[in-house]
Amino acid sequence: MDKFVYYLVTLVESVLGVFGVRALYEQPRYSVVQHLDRGVEIRAYEGRLAVETDSRGQGDGEAFGRLFRYITGANRTGGLIAMTAPVEAGGQRIAMTVPVEQGAGGTMRFFLPRAVAEAGAPEPTEAGVRLVQVPPERIAALRFTGSLSPQARSVHERTLTDVLAASNQKLQSPPFFMGYDPPFSIPFLRRNEVAARLASP
């Protein structure tokens, strides 16, 4: 795909994202294995490949820019890679694979399309950007629409952790954020999620 077509497709995806249309974005595969109170889902995710960078938190434009540059050519082959959803932000890094926390010591992560992972993703050329293999895992998630303010995120994180505590689920990481839409999307059409990695059952 040449650069003009790539950027045209990216622009169309962004415009559709304003209205909550995200069917063009590839998303990591998962199955819902349990429904808990207040809309919390326990999901089993397949292993996947991501590109990540250190971040100051969910709204870190510099971190997003580094990852966006990777998928638009700042890689060993200069290849263009399709954008996927969600973008992960929030949660302390654990082991070698976990995403971001708002504040110090976090990361931001884009998941790579399966075809790119299977073909061998090109190494990043920009300092501070790295490829990480995320193993299969269980994640608890709570979906919500509307504002991405710190207050809204905090309320939903508290709901998630309360529901998980009431059902004796053991967290492996602090809650993090998964965003499926551009920041300029119509708030009531947005798909936002707070999530937490769970210990193996």
Provide structural commentary.
- Residues 91-105 have low confidence and may be disordered.
- Strand 1 (30-35) and strand 2 (41-45) form a beta hairpin.
- The chain is globular.
- The chain is an alpha+beta fold.
- It has a single domain, classed as Multidrug-efflux Transporter 1 Regulator Bmrr, Chain A (Alpha-Beta Barrel).
- The protein is 25% helix and 26% strand.
- The N and C termini lie far apart (43 Å).
- Strands 1-2-7-9-8-4-5-3-6 form a nine-stranded antiparallel sheet, with helices on one face.
What is the name of the CATH architecture? Alpha-Beta Barrel
Q: Give the count of helical stretches.
A: 4
Low-confidence stretches: 91-105
How confident is the prediction overall: mean pLDDT?
A: 86
CATH topology: Multidrug-efflux Transporter 1 Regulator Bmrr, Chain A
Tell me the strand order in the biggest sheet: 1-2-7-9-8-4-5-3-6
Structural class, please? alpha+beta
Biggest sheet features: 9 strands, antiparallel
Roughly how many Å apart are the termini? 43 Å
Q: What is the class in the CATH system?
A: Alpha Beta
Number of domains: 1
What fraction, in percent, of the residue positions are helical?
A: 10-25%
